[in-house]
Amino acid sequence: MTSTRGSAPTGGHRLALIGAGWISGYHLAALERLGRTRLVAVASGSLASAARTAAAHGGAAYPTSELERLLDEHRPDIALVSVPPFAAVAILERLVERGIPFLTEKPLSATDADGPARVAAWIAARGLVAAVGYHLRGLEALAEVRSSLAANPAHLVSARWLGSTPPPAWWRRESTGGGQVIEQATHFYDLARLLAGEATVLAAAATQEIPFVDGVDLVDATAALLRFKSGALGSFANSRRLASSMVEFELACAGRLITILKLEPLQTTWTVTVDDGGPVRTLAPGRDPYEVQAEAFLDAVEVGDPGRVLSSYADALLTDRLTRAVVAATGRHG
Known about the structure:
CATH class of the largest domain: Alpha Beta
Largest sheet: 8 strands, mixed
Structural class: alpha/beta
Shape: globular
CATH architecture of the largest domain: 2-Layer Sandwich
Strand order of the largest sheet: 8-9-10-7-11-12-13-14
Oligomer: single chain
Helix content: 25-40%
CATH superfamily of the largest domain: Dihydrodipicolinate Reductase, domain 2
CATH topology of the largest domain: Dihydrodipicolinate Reductase, domain 2
Number of strands: 14
Order of helices and strands: EHEHEHEHEHEHEHHHEEEEEEEHH
Radius of gyration: 20 Å
Number of helices: 11
Distance between the termini: 34 Å
């Protein structure tokens, strides 16, 4: 069985949104700009949240507990999933069972390392179009970065994701969010895989000043040392205890430093610079990476080619395993 739906239906693909948290707004805005989908239903753990999103963007509202009824009554062509990590596996299994192509937010789960592997196997068996929201892959400047690295590969990858603790209660517990490495810094581990290749964890450590305070049981900071198959080294650090933020990814090459920097406050605002020793060049940022990501997903659905997405579920599973290996190397559950 394949997931091919053919070309876009008249009026656009019938879209179900599952999970109506803040990140879903970026996805919906991108999809609305593309004009190739029609939101028919919204499900959320909070019916009030689902109703607010449905009122703003269209569609009927359901609690997530009634997902089966939503799918039966509205028969969506595609789904956008942005639920907390602990809930993702069970929802994706239901979509795969029905053969509904989906774009899901990262990470693949919170602490369940086996569930994503099970979902990936089922996706592969069905030939389903399934994309994961590593939106940094949608930065159009990466085309020039990848071309540069092909001729002059990086010998060091250095990444820092330093910021404050996000407010959602699920993010603040390892059992529901997975922790900062798995839920947030995963973007940079994925980008490193994309630009420098596969890697193994040489060492990692975490620090936690107070084990549990204000509903938070996460470590304060994590540092990891990786070695890529190319021989390059990777230095990764993250902290959730800052008042401000510094989110920066660097590739050190012979005579060249490439920097990818997040600009506050928008999730979609990044800058890419190249320093060859002369004037620093800033690469054109291109379109909103969420829009590029959504476009690739819809193209994949319409031609029935799972390989057209920016990050397949199978590829995201490799990033998931890498981040869990980092956490395991710190002595915690990975």
